Write a sequence for this structure.
């Protein structure tokens, strides 16, 4: 694990997959288990904040950027504008009203520091249709058909995401009884019967049809990725 102090308000922590394994954490846990996320973040904060400058601040926020090698964690403390004494210091804190969004200054620092100039634009393109999908799913007048595919391992999910690109469907990934379940929700008015059949044929090459119903998964399973599971899997685990 590596730690870098970006400025007085932000710490950058690089955590490799080996470090995650030692802590009993996977990137998938961080994507789907909110309680585990919070506990993990604060345990990291205790390790790197030896001066207690962040732990004693009530407005600490976290930004996590997963990748195939592990993840980067940005820990920011919010300070009042009136208390800022140096106007030249880059403000890399995360907006308290939007904790899932990193500030423009932090983005610029990340792009310059790691030469990842396409990171945020790629993430937006990978997940930018989420709102449209939600609107479609919430519209009772739009018919859908749903199928569930059981995947024995997450590696099967990665392999499937590599080849299955859905344009008119939503995909939710659950973990349930030591397996992964991909719920595919096809938008009937936007798809042909033949295209749905072909896409399911591809899915069944990597997984199996199952009698486990979506309602059972929603109630008893662990939701790992919502609405755009295939796109998110490609982004986090297959992007160069």
């Amino acid at each position: 694990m590596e730690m870098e102090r970006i400025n007085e308000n932000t710490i950058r922590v690089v955590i490799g997959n080996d470090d995650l394994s030692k802590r009993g954490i996977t990137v998938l846990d961080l994507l789907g288990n909110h309680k585990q996320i919070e506990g993990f973040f604060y345990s990291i904060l205790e390790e790197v904040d030896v001066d207690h400058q962040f732990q004693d601040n009530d407005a600490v926020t976290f930004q996590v950027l997963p990748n195939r090698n592990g993840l980067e964690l940005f820990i920011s403390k919010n300070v009042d504008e009136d208390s800022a004494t140096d106007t030249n210091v880059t403000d890399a804190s995360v907006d308290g009203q939007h904790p899932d969004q990193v500030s423009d200054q932090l983005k610029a620092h990340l792009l310059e520091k790691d030469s990842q100039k396409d990171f945020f634009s790629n993430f937006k393109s990978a997940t930018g249709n989420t709102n449209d999908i939600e609107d479609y799913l919430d519209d009772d007048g739009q018919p859908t058909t749903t199928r569930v595919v059981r995947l024995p391992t997450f590696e099967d999910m990665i392999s499937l995401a590599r080849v299955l690109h859905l344009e008119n469907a939503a995909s939710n990934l659950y973990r349930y009884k030591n397996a992964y379940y991909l719920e595919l929700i096809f938008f009937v008015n936007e798809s042909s019967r033949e295209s749905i059949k072909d896409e399911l044929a591809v899915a069944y090459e990597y997984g199996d049809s199952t009698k486990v119903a979506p309602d059972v998964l929603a109630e008893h399973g662990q939701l790992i990725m919502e609405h755009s599971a295939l796109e998110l899997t490609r982004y986090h685990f297959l992007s160069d």
About this structure: The radius of gyration is 20 Å. Strands lie at 2-7, 10-16, 60-67, 70-77, 144-151, 169-176, 179-187, 208-209, 222-225.
